[in-house]
């Protein structure tokens, strides 16, 4: 912000991280903006610039400037960290005047004004939060941990002790299921003759968590076409819900989504057929697992959604030739976008700025164009240098195939280490070192730089 000129500041539109205010602003009103920035992403307030962009002379208001400088400490609870600078400019009369830039740092705490009101910056506005929104912000910033909250009316009978037993058998816990719940993470707490049950206990081991968390489920929606349509054009062809405990939701979601991901077979450069899934398994599984395990279960407004279209999926994988995934936060919602190997087009999903956070995963899967003389399951648009990282198709005793595989991999990622290549080929490191040495002697491969931090250079003719 300090790199902007005075003219740019006077003309700049207010935004998520920028606001401008007249020198006449009252200290209590400035506090609302400071609190909003601190609770959100931080930001800069230009003081001494009227709403119409007119520059004011703050040098004539020294006492009031001092009052405004005390706002982060005297009017914000707890106090907010800020820095400030004065930016000089020459007015129309040729005199040197100043405006003040107050830089508000993003905070890990929740701040309020002297009236105990909490504001949050959304777009170009400082929004006053309701009680529920304020509670949500407390959970988001870690001032309160929702999973430690005890659930009203939840009884011990709501917990499936058999699930607990299965878990402690895996981790080798020697005591009973009930003792594990009592002695670890305050999952349950003895209260008189009964127990208080935490949200975490219900989510992990509850017989029916959705009785207490109605929106704690995963919804998979598959569309025919490239966008979601409504009304008489509605194009939903699958709409499936997965509920249960967190672990059950993960298992059900992964098992089902795996049946929806296409595979493509094409002829590799070594003359062997290679079958590749549309999305790398590790990538889409990680995204779904993260969405479920890191979901904020204190929010009531929406479920976790996985949306699959004919042209895209929210996911990623650069190593498989896919563009990098894109992650985006809008208010309290997080979106992860993953692109298909066969379609590098980005399309944004619909979302609302309702003050809730929603983890959304969308699957993107477009059928490629196929020439008439190619089998239907061989996509035309798979480039020749697509990594053929299917070890079983590259026999260890096939030196030529293995070396061709190495060249292909290093063409796509010239920073791979020998250990990376050994892992991809499922061979030992000595074999890779021998192949690399042969490729060096043939003048095909050259090492640039050290083993750590260097890269491989491939002869242009070889490419």
Could you characterize what this model shows?
The chain has 463 residues and is α+β, with helices and mostly antiparallel strands. 28% of the residues lie in helices and 22% in strands. The protein contains 13 helices and 20 strands. The strands form seven sheets. It has a six-stranded mixed sheet. It has a four-stranded mixed sheet with strand order 1-2-5-4. Strands 3-6 form a two-stranded antiparallel ribbon. Strand 9 (188-191) and strand 10 form a beta hairpin. It is extended and about 80 Å long.
Give the key terms.
463 residues, 28% helix, 13 helices, extended
- Give me the side-by-side strand order of the main sheet: 12-11-15-18-17-16
- Classify the beta-strand content into a percent band: 15-25%
- Rounded to the nearest angstrom, the radius of gyration is 29 Å
**Low-confidence parts, pLDDT < 50 over ≥5 residues?**
314-321, 343-397
Structural class: alpha+beta
Largest sheet: 6 strands, mixed
Shape: extended
Query: Can you count the beta strands?
Result: 20
The N- and C-terminal alpha carbons lie at a distance of 46 Å
Number of helices, where a helix is a run of at least 4 consecutive DSSP H or I residues: 13
* Global mean pLDDT: 79
Helix proportion: 25-40%
